[in-house]
Write a structure and sequence with these properties.
Layout (H helix, E strand, L loop, with lengths): L1 H18 L12 E2 L8 E7 L17 H11 L5 E4 L42 H9 L3 E4 L11 H4 L8 H19 L5 E2 L14 H8 L2 E3 L3 E2 L11 H22 L8 E5 L10 H14 L3 E3 L1 H7 L12 H8 L19 H8 L2 H15 L7 H9 L29 H7 L4
Parallel strand pairs: 1-6, 2-3, 2-8, 2-9, 3-4, 5-6, 7-8
Length: about 425
């Protein structure tokens, strides 16, 4: 099964690169943040599925919990991690374990962290001490779902899985963990990652709609730390060493080819067992951090990366950065892939997203989805509001070229590129 996962990932990359048409991205309040633009040697590491109050496997740390081991290691390197935690999977029954080494090793119908029938040793609800330690040591916490149930179907790998299946159910699950962290720790979650990166919910909505409702950003990653995949090499010790090497060798190769490769990147890791119930991250993390330190990198939280720049293609050197940063607090100025594309001509739909209040644009679009029972254009709610206000003519196509700007809201512009329009906007 792990081979199926690896082949599936490779096949998906091939299709996206050589076969399928380029993905179409629209302006979005929720941005999929994989990396940010910076020339500084800073990067982030995210750790999914914890906290885990069980020992590393094999246990060579005198019984210390895996999350403690990761925190100890990060502390030695003055590194700050981003822990993408779950709430509690103990209600994910009845269920039984799948085949060891498969994606369903911990459960056929649901996920169980840190392991099936060991749910009481994982998740935020059962690990007050670990959550408090994470926060006290300056790390970030993000929302990976209270019960870690996938939003919608993923048939090839998780065809037997129970899904949340609706916008309201997915939003409630994410909000449940968000509210728990706020009520128990006074901590405000700013980012979330959907379980297994499944975005389509099945009722016309996606994870982006869920995060729009909750006001958080979509935390993705640009580099796979690889410790979650098992190796079949030799005996258990040989397999563990192969798994640790698989975490380090790609990183080393990337840095040897380009020492600035990891500037602004987000690296994916796992705070838990891999599919073979081993924890190569307990050893591989140290080797990764040693390598990054050799090249002059500092590992920071994702929030700290976003303080450098919120966007993938606009950095500190751009004079419009702070204007865009302020606009993005209230309007959708970046595409769902977190690019701004300042030299691109603005469309009528993109202008509508700049002018319409966020709450109005979202409410109207969600109402249209519920009425139609299927997805609607990302700009439909904003265009409807702008038409009512007389700012854009009713019936204007979202992709129509922009030829004029509403009077009184903009300084004069030389052209209708996105750079010019954003720079001239005076409405907020």
């Amino acid at each position: 099964m792990s081979l199926i996962v690896k082949v599936g990932k490779a096949g998906k990359r091939f299709l996206k690169t050589y076969v399928l048409p380029p993905a179409v991205h629209h302006l979005s309040y929720t941005r999929r943040i994989e990396r940010v633009k910076t020339t500084r040697r800073i990067c982030a590491m995210t750790f999914d599925d914890g906290p885990m109050d069980l020992p590393a496997a094999p246990d060579r740390f005198d019984g210390r919990s895996l999350t403690d081991i990761l925190l100890d290691t990060l502390g030695e390197f003055n590194a700050r991690g981003t822990f993408d935690v779950v709430g509690d999977t103990s209600d994910n029954y009845p269920d039984r374990a799948g085949k060891l080494g498969s994606a369903a090793w911990g459960g056929l119908k649901y996920d169980h962290y840190p392991d099936i029938h060991r749910d009481d040793r994982g998740g935020a609800v059962h690990n007050d001490r670990l959550i408090r330690r994470i926060l006290a040591e300056g790390h970030q916490i993000t929302d990976h779902g209270y019960r870690h149930i996938i939003f919608g179907k993923k048939n090839i790998v998780y065809g037997k899985r129970v899904t949340l299946g609706s916008f309201d159910a997915a939003a409630a699950d994410i909000a449940r963990l968000r509210d728990y962290l706020r009520e128990h720790y006074g901590y405000t979650v700013t980012m979330a990652r959907p379980p297994h990166y499944v975005d389509r919910i099945g009722d016309g909505f996606t994870s982006y709609d869920v995060y729009d409702r909750l006001g958080c950003q979509y935390m993705a990653a640009s580099f796979d730390g690889a410790g979650w995949l098992p190796s079949a090499a030799g005996d258990a010790d040989a397999a563990l060493e192969a798994e640790v090497n698989a975490m380090v060798a790609p990183m080393q190769a990337a840095l040897e080819q380009d020492p600035d490769f990891f500037c602004g990147q987000i690296i994916f890791q796992k705070d838990g067992y891999n599919m073979a119930k081993r924890t190569p991250v307990a050893w591989g993390l140290r080797r990764q951090l040693e390598l990054l330190r050799t090249y002059g990198y500092q590992v920071v939280t994702v929030d700290e990366l976003l303080a450098e720049s919120p966007f993938a293609d606009v950095g500190r050197e751009d004079p419009l950065l702070e204007t865009l940063r302020a606009l993005a607090e209230q309007r959708a100025v970046a595409y769902s892939d977190n690019t701004v594309r300042l030299d691109r001509a603005m469309t009528a739909g993109e202008l509508a997203m700049l002018l319409a209040p966020r709450e109005e644009a979202l409410r109207r679009r969600w109402e249209a989805i519920r009425q139609a029972g299927k997805s609607q254009h990302a700009y439909c709610g904003a265009l409807a509001w702008c038409a009512e206000q007389g700012l854009i003519a009713a019936g204007t196509a979202p992709d129509a070229p922009l030829t004029a700007l509403p009077e009184g809201l903009f300084a004069p512009v030389q052209d209708f590129t996105r750079r010019s329009v954003y720079g001239a906007y005076q409405g907020l």
